Amino acid sequence: NFLSNAHKFSPLDSPIEVQLREQGQMAHVSVHDEGPGVPSREQKRIWDRFYRSPTVKILNGSEVGLGLGLYLCRAIISQHQGRTGVQSIPGAGSTFWFTLPLLQEKLHSG
């Protein structure tokens, strides 16, 4: 969803950057685009069920969403003890990110 949103809301010729890094005991995944960005007053609301930003326009594709994608992402990630977030500056793109705990293998004695 983060990747498809980056494509949907960014110019076709702009890059989308996906990063995965280890952050302590968590995996941190981020998707950065160079789209219009999300106004600060809407950055909390975009995670709400059925919320669609009235100011951010679709640039690619004709898919009109129901406002469930980010809500479902947050719910699923939260159920797995992860977190979600966004860093965005209007006119300068957005970075949507999530964290999930890394698998901790237990050693079995023999």
Structure, briefly:
It is built from 2 helices and 4 strands, in the order αββαββ.
List the helices and strands and how they pair.
Layout: H1 2-8, E1 17-23, E2 26-33, H2 69-79, E3 83-88, E4 94-101
Antiparallel strand pairs: 1-2, 2-4, 3-4
Describe this structure as you would to a colleague.
The chain has 110 residues and is an alpha+beta fold. The protein is built from two helices and four strands. The protein has a four-stranded antiparallel sheet with strand order 1-2-4-3. The model has no long low-confidence stretch (mean pLDDT 88).
Keywords:
alpha+beta, 110 residues
Pick out the low-confidence regions.
Answer: none
Give me the number of helical elements: 2
> What's the Cα radius of gyration?
16 Å
Principal-axes geometry comes out as globular
Arithmetic mean pLDDT: 88
Order of helices and strands: HEEHEE
* Derived structural class: alpha+beta
Query: Distance between termini?
Result: 43 Å
Instruction: Tell me about the largest β-sheet.
Output: 4 strands, antiparallel
What proportion of the residues form beta strands (DSSP E)? Answer: 25-35%
Seen as an oligomer or otherwise, the chain set is single chain
Main β-sheet, spatial strand arrangement: 1-2-4-3
Percent of residues in helices comes to: 10-25%
Number of strands: 4
